[in-house]
Amino acid sequence: MRDLAKSMISWAWAMSVFTALQGARLLSPKGGASDQTATGAFNTVTNTATDLLSSPAKAAWSVGVAAQQVVFQAIAKTTPGMTPAASNGHVAPESTTATASEPMPIESLSSAKHTA
User: Fold this and answer.
1) What ranges in 1-116 are assigned the alpha helix state H?
2) pTM for the full model?
């Protein structure tokens, strides 16, 4: 039980430091290169975590990701100059929606920008 508690505390601290680092990267004036580094790091963590999920948990995760995409697309449609990006870095058609079997890549969230 002690090892489990130590692992949980260690994981929580590692995620806090990781998130702070990625936030600093996103706020740095370097722009695109920092965004891509942060996006890649978040995708690596996401892929590693989802690889450990059971089939029912993965199905629930996919449903949640699809719901997030619907909300994000609704926000993007109402924000001038902001459109969700496809996983290949190109602007996705606004009518594109994901299904539970096709989760939205994390980079779609981080690569959409608001331009004035």
Assistant:
1) 2-27, 32-51, 55-78, 106-111
2) 0.56
pLDDT in tens, 7-53: 999 999 999 999 898 888 878 776 667 778 888 888 999 999 999 99
Contact 73, 94 (CB under 8 A): yes
Residue 15, Cα to own-chain centre: how many angstroms?
A: 14
Neighbours of 3 (CB within 10 A): 7
Q: Which residues contact 72 (CB under 8 A, 6 or more apart)?
A: 84, 104, 108, 109, 112
CA distance 22 to 76: 23
Residue reference for tokens 């449903």: 63
| Helices 2-27 and 32-51, packing angle to 10 deg | 160
**Amino acid at position 33, single letter:** A
Instruction: Give the CB-side neighbour count of residue 75, counting CA atoms within 13 A.
Output: 11
